[in-house]
Amino acid sequence: MKKLFKKYFYYLFLLALIFFLFYKHRLNADEGVILNGAWNLFNKRTLYIDFFEIIAPGSFYLINLFFKLFSPNYFIANIVSLIILWLGSLGIYQSTNLIQKNKLNFLFPIFFILSLAPFPIINHNLYSTVLLIWSSYFFIKGIKNNSLKSFIISGFLGGLSIIFLQQKGIAFCTASFIFILFFILKNKNYYLKNILGYCVGIIIPVICLFLKWSPNLLWKNLIVFPMLTYWEVNQTSFLLLLSFFLVLFYFFIYFIKKSILIKYLLFVQFFLLLSTIPLPDYYHLIINIFPLLILSSLLLANNNNKMTKLLIIVFIFILNIPTFSYLKNNYKPFYSCKKNPDYQELMVYIEKKCEGKYIYSGPFLPNLYLETKKLSATPFGLLIENQSTDEQYNEALNYFKKNQPTCAVLNYYDNMYIKFNSTGNNVLENYIKNNYKLEYQKNNFFIYHQ
């Protein structure tokens, strides 16, 4: 009874920590991508047809579901995301205990939560990661118990992850499939039914995509377009990615002769790191290193080598460098972006002056659509030069002229060119500047009125 009490007290502590750090977390433009997609669905627009996205549909439909159940606002989406993050932390804890119970296992879900404190959580990266954490748990359970049911559940969760974030889900499922195939060939006691069960689990959610959209449309929107354009707008150093590969290599050397369960985590970690190559920044790396977090607990508990323990401490420190800066300079508990005076002033102006159903917000400010409860005047939630094509800009301009929004909000923050290689010199923004009157300007916000 005492152990059960401690267990549930720990679960409540993790939930309390998440609410303390993330409740009314400052709204991020990256979160706006998901919020705007869900807002479009709420307004009966059809994904990939009425509005354009390069992200798999899962996150949009998940948030839209709760918009329909409750109301379309940031608070609802944030609460859903807090609970999903909590489930992810529980998955890390359960996975670590499944491999080996030790007194340090409770620390690493906390490290996972803390490392994400500065980053967006209403986000497809988080949702897909939580699915993969639990997919890994059931995969490990399937190997450990030779359980067909566990392999089916693992495959199903892996398949769900694909419809939340295509490249990461595909990388993970590919890694798991290769591993289980090799494992079955090497171990005669594990039957072919396990690999078939895993594949069936993956296929069930993925096939739902093809019931709504044609394979050709999904191929062009979710695979071809990101592959051809994403590199141009994300100029990120590979140094951090290389450091994570070096950590993984050290773990591989140490665990090379350990159990097959540990080897599985190392194997999928390699593929997850490969999936971050298009954008290997802090956020996309941290959100994808849960296998190393699980193994860090095992390595720290079972190793008396001081250098190894120091490596783990340094690894945890690296994960939390952005968190240290965030907590020191920006964090305010229970803080809402709408309480920011400058942002509040912007919202008041839009509410009073920007009439009508439509507004334009860009180049990268998709969160404004849900906040203003207006629809984008174009089919695009964001338009970034070198990612968006000339054809897309021309299409956006045609829709802009057709819908004639009263206001267009342009936002050029300081590192727009550095981060996205975007200058604002395109047919849509030039049309806005030449045909609308600039009536509001503060900091990086510019509102052009019809």
What does this structure look like?
The termini are far apart. The protein is mainly alpha-helical and 450 residues long. It has 21 helices and 5 strands. It has helices at residues 2-22, 29-42, 58-69, 74-99, 107-115, 124-145, 148-162, 166-186, 192-212, 215-233, 239-255, 260-274, 282-286, 290-301, 306-319, 321-329, 341-353, 367-372, 390-403, 416-420, 427-435; strands at residues 358-362, 375-376, 407-411, 437-442, 445-449. It folds into 2 domains: 2-329, no CATH class; 340-449. The radius of gyration is 23 Å and the shape is globular. It has a 5-stranded mixed sheet with strand order 2-1-3-5-4, sandwiched between helices. The model has no long low-confidence stretch (mean pLDDT 87). 66% of the residues lie in helices and 5% in strands.
Question: How are the secondary structure elements laid out?
Answer:
Elements: H1 2-22, H2 29-42, H3 58-69, H4 74-99, H5 107-115, H6 124-145, H7 148-162, H8 166-186, H9 192-212, H10 215-233, H11 239-255, H12 260-274, H13 282-286, H14 290-301, H15 306-319, H16 321-329, H17 341-353, E1 358-362, H18 367-372, E2 375-376, H19 390-403, E3 407-411, H20 416-420, H21 427-435, E4 437-442, E5 445-449
Parallel strand pairs: 1-2, 1-3
Antiparallel strand pairs: 3-5, 4-5
